[in-house]
Sequence to fold (497 residues):
Amino acid sequence: MKNKFIVTLISAFAVSACTYDFPVKEEPSLGQTDFTKLVSVGNSFTAGFMDGALYTNSQNNSFPSIIARQAKLLGGGDFSQPTVNSDNGCFNPGGGCSLGRLILKNPASPGPVPTTGDGGASLEPYAGSKTALNNWGVPGVTIQTAQTPLLGGPLNALFNPFYARMASAAGTSTLIGDAAASMSNGGTFFTFWLGNNDVLGYATGGASNLAILTPQGIFQAAFNAALTTMLNANANAEGAVANIPNVTSIPFFSTINPLAFVVPSASRPALTAGIDQLNAAINGWNAGVDANPGLTDAQKTALRRPTLSKNFTRYAFIILDTSLSDASVPTPGGPFVIPKIRNANASDNLLICLTAGSDPAGLPGGMGISPANPINEGAHDRFYLNPAEQTEIQTSIDGFNATIASAVAAQASRLVLVDMNTVLKNVRAGTVSIGGSSFTASISPPFGAFSLDGVHPNPRGSAYIANQFILAINSKWGAKIPLSNPNDFVGNALPTP
Fold:
C-alpha cells in the first residue's frame, strides 16, 4: 500500500509538472512601432532645459533623448539635438548671458544662485542640418508662438533666441513647420508636448499678467492645428502626446513657506525703515478712525488697518489684500494712500513662487515701502497665487487637457496619450520610489526629481518622464522597449562653498 501511494504521488507530480506554465521571459522589442527616426516637438521640457538654462549636460539628459537611447538598444535610430556646447548655458538671455545655470551655495542663500554665463555662446546659430534634427524643443514657446514666424525673427516682442538659433529660416519659418519638415524627411515616430507655457508663465508670474494666459478657444484651435500638421507630415507615422501637469505638482510653488519666510540679513535695515514708516502711517490712520465720533464700533473695526510684522527670522510674508479699507494720511508732500497690503496668515492658503526668495526688489518682504516711496500694489501679486488664482489656473489646465485628450482620441489609431498630469501628481503625493530610493517633487538633493529652477526636471526626473512615455508606447503598440533606471542619472548636487 505504501509503495502504491508513492507511485501515485510521483505520477500526479509528473502530470502536474507537465501542465504547469512557467513564466515566459519576454524579449525586448519595438512591437508595432518604428523608431528609425524619432522627432520630438515641445517646449523647455522637451529641449532638456534645467536649472534655469540650456547647457550640454541638460541637453544630453532631455527626456526624448533618453527615449531614443532606450529604443536604439532595439535598433532605433540616432537622435540629433541642436547642441549648445556650453557647460553653464545662459540664465539671462536678455542680459547678455552673463549668468549661467543655477547651483546651490553654502552657506545657504535665499535660493539657488546662478553661475557665470557663457556670454551667449549657447545661443549661437546651430550649424548642422535642420531637417536631420530630431529634437525641436524650444524653451518658452506656447502653442500659438510655435506656429508664428515672429518666434524666430529679431526685433519683435515674440523673438525667442532658442528657436532663432535652430530655425530653418529665422523670421520666416515656424517651429511646427520645422518639426514637420523633419518628420517629412524620414520621420517615423514623434513626441508632442506643447501647451505647458500657455498657463505656466501666467502661474509662475503670480497670475499678475492675464494677457499671457491663453483663452480656451484659442488654445483648442491652435493645438489641433499644430497636431494635425505633425500627423500630415507622414501619414504612416505614430506619436505620443503628453498633457499638462498641475502647477501644484512642481516645487516652484512649494519650496517657500509664506509663514516661515526668512529675510536675508543684508535686506533687514532698509526693510525695517520701510515698515516703520508705513506702520506710522497705519497707526495714524487707525487713531483717526478710533477718534471719529460718527462711526459705530463695527464701522471702526472694518476701517482699521493691520500693522506689519518685523519678525525677520520667521517673517510673515506680505501680500496684497484688495478687501482692506481705503486709507490715506496727510504728509508734507500731500496725502499718502496706504497700500492695501498685510502679513499673510495660514488661512490665506497661498502658493509662493520660488523667485520670491531671491528677487532683488525684495518686494515680498515689503522693501522700499514707505509714505515717501509708495509702491505699485500689483507688484506683490507676482510672488504668489491666492486661492482664486489657483482655481482660475486649474480651470485652464482642465480645459487644455480636455482639448488634448479629445485630439488624441480623434486619432486613436495613431496616437497615445501620456498622462503627465497624473504622473506628476503621484510624485507630488510621495507615492513614487525608484528601486527603494525616494523620488520627490522637490529640488533637495539627493532625492529631488526637479532641477534648481523648481519647474523643470533634473536628469533623474527626466529619466522618469521618459519612462512614462515608454510605458504608454509599450501598452499602445505591443512594444517592449526597456525602461531606463532613473537611479543611474544624477540628481541635484550638494551645495558648494
